[in-house]
């Protein structure tokens, strides 16, 4: 047990090291003559400026009631109908040209960085669920008594672990996605799930094999069949052993999700690239992106640690 003095000394030393690192980053920016503009970043996270609604065609404004604006086009195209706005800029009967401001929406809205963060969380969470299902299925196949199941599982694991995720994303999107008519998001989820599932399968296999053989024999001697023994005796013990490596793999999944930007999914990484081109604040953007990834992975790590402690307390 650490003494209170040593513990506080350790905290103080940690704070000193972190302060040195932060000042090191700041003075490095000064050394390369970089001007920090954190104020430019906020509108890309939460935008409080009014949003203009722009005319998409030439025509005449027709206002119906208090909540509907119609732009009747001069040529035979479909009219532009606007039903969501807070303040009109045009009046009934005004001549409208393409690019004119028609109305404005007041209030705040999420910027591209916040929207990209949501996409990253959503695609990571869905991929995590499917990767667990694939990992458990193929992990059980790896320890099956049927040779054909073991061969199929080994093939899946070795092929997926032996090829880069970026290549797999391209194959899933351009080949499998074309055959089955998958959209970008579904293809991204499928690629991440298949890739992570192979690693989860090996973690599950190792966890099952770490349980003493006598546990299975004892369960079978009590009258359980193989499936009952696996579900009620072996898997609960294996899960406790696999939680730490699973946590690391799921954290890698969140970070690997940044690669889906190559198929034009606007996740956090792709949103960062777009914001850099518009804000001209690359260091601020990428430090913010890194911090948001850290928040997500840290939250997942904390949740798994809590689950691990709860399972340990139930022994």
UniProtKB/TrEMBL annotation:
Alphabetical UniProt keywords: Amino-acid transport, Cell membrane, Membrane, Transmembrane, Transmembrane helix, Transport
Domain of life: Bacteria
Membrane topology reported for the UniProt record: Multi-pass membrane protein
Chief subcellular location: membrane
Record-linked CDD domains: TM_PBP2 (cd06261)
Pfam families tied to this protein: BPD_transp_1 (PF00528)
Location of this chain's protein in the cell: Cell inner membrane; Cell membrane
Transmembrane feature ranges: 12-29, 117-141, 153-176, 285-304
The ABC transmembrane type-1 domain, residue ranges: 117-304
InterPro entries associated with the record: AA_ABC_transptr_permease_3TM, ArtM/GltK/GlnP/TcyL/YhdX-like, MetI-like, MetI-like_sf
Family listed: Belongs to the binding-protein-dependent transport system permease family. HisMQ subfamily.
Function text: Part of the binding-protein-dependent transport system for glutamine; probably responsible for the translocation of the substrate across the membrane.
Name the record gives this protein: Amino acid ABC transporter permease
Species of the source: Neptunomonas phycophila
